[in-house]
């Protein structure tokens, strides 16, 4: 079987997906908290390599239902290259598996509405978009290279084209000093987007990142596990996103919650209150990972 250029990452919900690396690394790769692709220089994989992988994958897994296009931002590919990839997938798997990608706002916004709709028709059904925070100051501090308005506009245009979006935010990303504002502004942005899926992660300070340097210098104070629960409760209480499926199943979290909003909101708040009253029920740090 084809060899991956590691490290290789995918969302938890793509555990049963066949993964193809259409790019290597991340087109941005300067976020202060992120260590995922720091060992790689970003590049688009040559078509001959990718096509060989696709054909080998189709021969080995002819009935696969889901395909995830890695690495960090497949939507940065040109419209023509994405059409070529998706058309080849449709040819090799005529039953039309669902295709999903990680996406930054710039990759989405670089395509016209007509182009996005055509990509959806070719099978690109789900975009995983990292909001990280609804607070523009936090996005500037982490060198995200996007604004909240950019991300909201990208989500709006993707959804208008018929794509589902799964929006991710990170508990603890503003540290102790900015915790409450981060929670409230992130809830505000998520309520505006009303994504099909909302996934919350909890910050892990990875070695050899600029954020780790800030922690060592005393310029950033991470949240304790209990403070992370409290921040998520503030966010959840302010969140108004009917129809969204909420999940904290990512392994970076100290606990797992999930449910359909807004119906499950009261139950989710009750579970968070229980965790605040019983912090011994939180996962230990040795269980957490990216």
From TrEMBL:
SUPFAM superfamilies: Radical SAM enzymes (SSF102114). It comes from the Bacteria. PANTHER family: ANAEROBIC MAGNESIUM-PROTOPORPHYRIN IX MONOMETHYL ESTER CYCLASE-RELATED, RADICAL SAM SUPERFAMILY PROTEIN. The keyword Iron applies. It holds the Pfam family Radical_SAM. This is Radical SAM protein. CDD domains: Radical_SAM (cd01335). The keyword Iron applies. Keywords: Iron, Iron-sulfur, Metal-binding, S-adenosyl-L-methionine. Its cofactor is [4Fe-4S] cluster. Coiled coil: none annotated. InterPro entries: Aldolase_TIM (IPR013785), BchE-like (IPR051198), Elp3/MiaA/NifB-like_rSAM (IPR006638), rSAM (IPR007197), rSAM_sf (IPR058240). Residues 10-242 form the Radical SAM core domain.
């Amino acid at each position: 079987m084809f060899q991956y250029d590691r490290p290789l990452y995918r969302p938890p919900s793509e555990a049963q997906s066949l993964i193809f690396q259409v790019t290597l690394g991340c087109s941005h790769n300067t976020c202060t908290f992120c260590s995922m692709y720091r060992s790689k220089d970003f590049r688009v994989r040559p078509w001959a390599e990718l096509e060989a992988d696709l054909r080998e994958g189709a021969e080995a897994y002819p009935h696969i239902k889901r395909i995830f296009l890695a690495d960090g931002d497949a939507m940065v590919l040109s419209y023509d290259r994405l059409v070529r990839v998706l058309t080849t997938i449709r040819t090799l798997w005529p039953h039309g598996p669902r295709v999903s990608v990680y996406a930054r706002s710039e990759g989405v916004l670089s395509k016209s509405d007509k182009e996005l709709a055509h990509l959806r028709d070719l099978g690109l059904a789900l975009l995983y978009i990292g909001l990280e925070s609804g607070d523009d100051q936090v996005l500037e501090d982490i060198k995200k290279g996007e604004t909240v308005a950019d991300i909201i506009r990208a989500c709006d245009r993707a959804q208008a084209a018929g794509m589902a979006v799964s929006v991710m935010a990170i508990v603890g990303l503003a540290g102790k000093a900015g915790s409450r504002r981060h929670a409230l502004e992130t809830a505000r942005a998520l309520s505006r987007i009303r994504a099909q899926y909302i996934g919350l992660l909890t910050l892990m300070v990875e070695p050899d990142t600029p954020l780790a340097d800030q922690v060592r210098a005393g310029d950033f104070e991470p949240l304790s596990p209990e403070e992370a629960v409290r921040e998520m409760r503030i966010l959840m209480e302010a969140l108004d996103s009917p129809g969204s499926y909420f999940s904290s199943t990512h392994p970076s979290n100290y606990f797992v919650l999930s449910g359909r909003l807004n119906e499950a909101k009261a139950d989710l708040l009750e579970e968070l209150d229980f965790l605040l009253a019983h912090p011994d029920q939180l996962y230990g740090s040795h269980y957490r990972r990216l």
